[in-house]
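Operator note (shift B, R.M.): manual run for Fructose-1,6-bisphosphatase/inositol monophosphatase family enzyme requested after the automated queue skipped it. Running by hand, logging everything below so the morning shift can see what happened. Input copied straight from the record, untouched. If output looks odd, do not overwrite the archive copy; leave it for review.
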Amino acid sequence: MDRVSALIRDVAETEILPYFRDLANAGIREKTGPADLVTLADEAAERALTPRLMDLLPGSTVVGEEAVSADKSLLDRLHGDAPVWIIDPIDGTINFANGRPLFAVIVALARAGETLAGWIYDPCDGRLATAVKGQGAFLNGKRVQVAPAVPLPEMVGALSTRFCEESLGRQLDERGRALGPRACLSSAAQEYLRLLEGRAHYSLYHRLMPWDHAAGVLLHAEAGGYSALFDGAPYRPTVLGGGVMMAPDRDSWQALHRHLFG
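Run finished. Output pasted below as returned.
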């Protein structure tokens, strides 16, 4: 854990922060559209992390967001027997590109479709969340627990309808008004950190890219939270369709699911 944490910190310091708020040199460009950006920092960080993570665990391989953007067949590695490092070099690239300090590095370690460990690091304020399956979740070395359950009208969280079909989006938006304040941070990593700090009760996502959620779902579970796919099945990094929702516990998850989807 410590060696991976040190590596992530080092790469963030050398490959990410020098580009932050230096738009002239960040090389910002679109991948699939205006809401899907990549920068030189994303690419440099992933290039730096990939060989060094593999060196830490001989026989392992890597699935990185930017590499998959060029070769989607790399996702097949998630189904193999070899350990797989899953990398999101900058989660929240839109925030990064616009000079907002709401982004983070996400790394997960998985094998045979199961997440074994996860890291989320915020280079701007130094927050580091870590978890090993079965060993609890930690934020800056201190064990953390998710916020306790509260009634639906008091539940604070992130409810984005960006990647869902229009009719479902309208339904979720309307029913979400009965909940507490909603704030989408345009970074799943930052929203997972908010859950770990007990500042939010739930998050809901419609796009299941493994680099966005493998580490976060594990961290949330190890902090005592409950999550499941929209159909009630457990999340796995090999699942690429549908959506996932986090809540303080199983009862809260079921109540929230009935309210939003029932």
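Quick read of the result: The chain has a mean pLDDT of 94. The first strand starts at residue 29 and ends at 33.
Leaving this for review. - R.M.
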